[in-house]
Amino acid sequence: MNSWRTHYKKALIALSLLLCTSVSIYAQDASKGDPENGETLFKANCAACHALDKQLVGPALGGVVDRVKQEENLDVDWFYKWIKDNKALRTSGDKYANELFEKFNKTEMPVFANLSDQDVDDILAYTTNPPKQDDAAATTADKAQDPAQLEAERTEKTNSLIILVSLLAVSGLLVWLLIKLRQLVKLNQSEELSVFNECQIRNFGELYEKYNTIGKLVLGILAVFAAYGVWNWLMWVGVYKGYQPEQPIYFSHKIHAGINKIDCQLCHSGAKYGKVSEIPSLNVCMNCHKFISEYKGEYVQAGKTKDFYTGEIKKIYDAVGWDEKTQSYTGKTHPIQWVRIHNMPDFVYFNHSQHVVAGAKTIMAAKNVDIVCKACHGKIDTMNVVQMANDFTMGWCISCHRTTQVDMTNGYNEAYFKNLHAKLEKQYGKGTKITVDAIGGIECGKCHY
Known about the structure:
Blueprint (H helix, E strand, L loop, with lengths): L1 H31 L2 H11 L18 H9 L3 H9 L1 H6 L3 H9 L13 H12 L18 H41 L3 H8 L5 H7 L1 H24 L17 H7 L4 H4 L14 H8 L16 H15 L1 E2 L4 E2 L22 H15 L5 H6 L16 H10 L7 H6 L1 H11 L15 H4 L2
Antiparallel strand pairs: 1-2
Protein name: Cytochrome c, mono-and diheme variants
Keywords: Heme, Iron, Membrane, Metal-binding, Signal, Transmembrane, Transmembrane helix
GO molecular function: electron transfer activity; heme binding; metal ion binding
């Protein structure tokens, strides 16, 4: 019996030593890497498909080293093989690698042969012990207003109210004084003043009779100004420069086209190939936002928060029926009713492809703007909410056609307008700049049916 107890105690001691050794190994594996550098590497290589706290395309990676060790008894060496060349690991018959591949819809994970062992250690250190977010790095838009600033605003409002009440009191006092003075004048009015007052003009009719000619002249001038005002008002009917409607989903072009440098035609793909530029379908949005479920950018518009932007991304998910937990579509969808901003009248023909393809080189050659889209839509990459940047009147379009130089260096224009170019050079001399109006850009039939 004593012998059995002795062996049992030795077994317990050995097991304890083994567990301590395992914990020590885990600690060493976690401490080998640099979590801060790992965060940078994670965002550059892994964040498109993984998050620490939830499943995206792939599993959540928070604490993945300990989890895999406990569940599959696999150490860091397995991660080196999986991250650097997961396909080769699966081909070798690794059981866990193939289970992961099957579990996550047979989605191919990219090969990261460029990452060194130290890089992998850094990434794993980040997943094990991510650096705490510095509260001081929060943007000013996310913070509450400064108490001193709030106090200053209250003081300003109080002072404004005091000034307003004082002005009203002074105005009341002046009215009272005028009334009293009028009563005093009536009491002290002499007979001579009464006779003089009877000769005074008392109304506009008497004034007009006395100054008939001058009155007609003044009325004529007023009529001319009124007619001009009506004409000027009619000329601006249907002109909505500055129109900036609220959209059902808040979409910041400044974040997408400005900060992230996304090309306009990535979303508005029809602009290069058709008459209209098209409103992007939500499937286009999901190409990126399937993997970007939270806003983590540095820029935050005044009055907004990062949570606000994240909430707008969730509206996209709701519209397309995307379930974040299962990373799949539910089939429950509903359309987004975008508010149209630019809308040409029915009698006007405008072709986006003609301007984007031919106009791009023309406008860039003239060095008026950096890209053709801005010629009409303004600095769209600086707008949080898109607005109509120009008048879009016929005069505005004609002015553009009269000042924009045609690029004659490309093969098509050089061949197609060869005779015209020669004619203009003969008429105006060599070095003549051909503008759009010279090639029919202001003919009525070009824009009107």
